[in-house]
Amino acid sequence: MKDIVERPYKKKPLINRQPVIQKRTVIRPKRWMMDGMSQPLPQFTKEKVSQEVSLASQSELPINSYFSEQIPSESLKKIQDNSASRTNPAKLIMGKFQRYNKGQTALILAGIMVFVTGMIVSFQGFKTNSHVTAQVNQNQSPEFTGDNPDENPPGDVNSYQVPWDSPKKIKINKLSVNALVRALGTKENGELKAPSNIYDTGWYNQSAKPGEHGAMLIDGHYRGPTKPGVFKNINNLVKGDVITIERGDGKTFDYKVVKTEVYDADKVPMASALVPIEPGKPGLNLITCGGKYNPSTKLYDERIMVFASLVE
């Protein structure tokens, strides 16, 4: 029998043994911690909370006591504020501006106000122009002769009174014109009336008033039977010349001439006479007769028109 010989133990080499990877646990902050709440809401979801808030609003108990054992007060306040902002349009709109500072918010609001104001002004101008255009379709240009206007100088001009918002005087320094403005309408045939005196002017009382949207139409005589009229030289007005209108309350309005036009008596664009030459700006239009005088008809063969806009 062979002797038993002890042999030292040899470990078998590790074959295909995977290294051990130690897993690390990453602790992330809970949502309730990030929101600044003092306690978690483990048993509630967003849908559940919204449902409970709705039920609480129908309960006779105060909402705070209804949730006193379930939702922390900080969480409840946030829920209530969010719910109110969703149902209140004013809070919802103002919440959009919270992302901007005060200066930016002021600029945005100012822009909105300018836009709204512009829309209102444009609407008023469109309404006025539409109304006036409908009227002038039935009106004819004034015939400044034939009625033998008075050539006597007017009386005490200082005692002349008109309503506070109506035109009282017209001044054209370039032509040395300082005349009264009389309110006039139309004849039975739709023809515009002319002043009874060669020194006075006539304001068509269905046109705009001083400073108002639309156009103010003022006519005057070219001449009388023997003397020149108040608008004898308005064809000499050029772009940039100033015409001043004094209102009944003493306030004055300056209008700058844009252009002067001459038309045949039977081709006067009366629709243009009653609308501003510059859209959106109050206008002043002057009209008188001119050209050659026809003794048989006692009429002139031309009409002179001056278009001006308010100086703002």
Give a verbal description of the structure.
This protein is α+β, with helices and mostly antiparallel strands and 312 residues long. It folds into 2 domains: 31-99, no CATH class; 131-310, Sortase, Chain: A. It has helices at residues 31-34, 46-58, 63-66, 73-87, 89-96, 102-136, 270-273, and strands at 167-172, 177-184, 201-204, 215-220, 242-247, 252-264, 283-294, 299-310. An 8-stranded mixed barrel has the order 1-2-3-4-7-8-6-5. The protein is elongated and about 150 Å long.
CATH T-level topology of the largest domain: Sortase, Chain: A
Give the low-pLDDT segments.
Answer: 60-69, 126-139
Second CATH tier, the architecture of the largest domain:
Beta Barrel
**Terminal CA distance:** 134 Å
What's the gyration radius in Å?
43 Å
SSE order, one letter for each helix or strand: HHHHHHEEEEEEHEE
Q: In terms of structural class, how would the helical and strand content be classed?
A: alpha+beta
Tally of domains:
2
Principal-axes geometry comes out as elongated
CATH superfamily of the largest domain: Sortase
Mean pLDDT: 75
Short description:
By secondary structure, the protein is α+β, with helices and mostly antiparallel strands. The chain is 27% helix and 21% strand.
